[in-house]
Each structure stands twice: as C-alpha cells, then as structure tokens.
Amino acid sequence: MLHSTLALPLLLIAVTSNLAMAIKKEKRAPQTLSRGWGDEITWVQTYEEGLYQAKKSNKPLMVIHHLEDCQYCQALKKAFAENEEIQEMAQNSFIMLNLMHETTDKNLSPDGQYVPRIMFVDPSLTVRADITGRYSNRLYTYEPQDMTFLIENMKKALRLIQTEL
C-alpha cells in the first residue's frame, strides 16, 4: 500500500516535469515588425522613420502595403520571405517598411489605394514613379511569380542612387 501511495505522486512529478521541459523547449518566434516578410530584416515602424533612415543612410526605402486578411498579400509575403536574394538585398541595401494601413502621403498612392503594392522612395525622399511592376492598371502590384521582376526593380533602385544622387 505504501509503495503505491508513493508511486502516484512520483508519477505526477515526472509527468509535470516532462511537460514543463517540453513547453520550455518549444520556441516561439517573437512577434516582430516583419509580420512574416522576413524576420532577419531590420524594419522601421513608420513611414516618417523610414524617410529619415533613407536620407541618413543614403539607402532607398522600400514600402510594402498589405493587409493581413488579403489572400494576394499572403501569397506575395510567402514568395518574398522565401526568396534568398530578395531577403539578402532587403537586409543589407534597403530601409524596409511594411504597412497594414495607408499613410497620409498621397505620393504613395498615385494610382489608388490597393494591396499588395510595393513602392520605392530614394534618399532624396522622392517616390520613384519610374520603378513599377508589370501591370498597367495597378502600377505597383507584384504577384508571387513576379519575384524576378521585383529583384530587377530592387537593383534598379540601387543603381539610380549611384547615377542620380
């Protein structure tokens, strides 16, 4: 009787100990400003901060407009986050901002307030109307299959800094 009385508390201690260790081992990714677009990228919080950092660092600002419940945004986010070349350039050569709301700067919505859209702002604080996606009805839209095109536009933004500024 004494043996079975000790066995039950020991069993409970072993189970709770293993459970506590399992919970401790389960690492949860910290919620970051990346919102899934790239956790290794340093993201700015606001458009104004992005403009300041672009000017200060002489790097272009890349602004991604998206919504959490938009299926097209989610598909683009997945392709963007999985593309190593985009992630590397975003980490090292750009000031990055993703917005889930519109800014008051109407220069960021020259052809409407749709999502997803990606725009570039150079260090002189000029929104680059000459760096667009491949769609004439939504100039700044990119789709998951457009990652090569987006890479070319990122490179174009970097070249323009060298030649124009």
From TrEMBL:
Keywords: Signal. One of its GO terms (molecular function) is dystroglycan binding. CDD domains: AGR. One of its GO terms (cellular component) is endoplasmic reticulum. The keyword Signal applies. Gene3D superfamilies: Glutaredoxin. SUPFAM superfamilies: Thioredoxin-like. This is AGR3 protein.
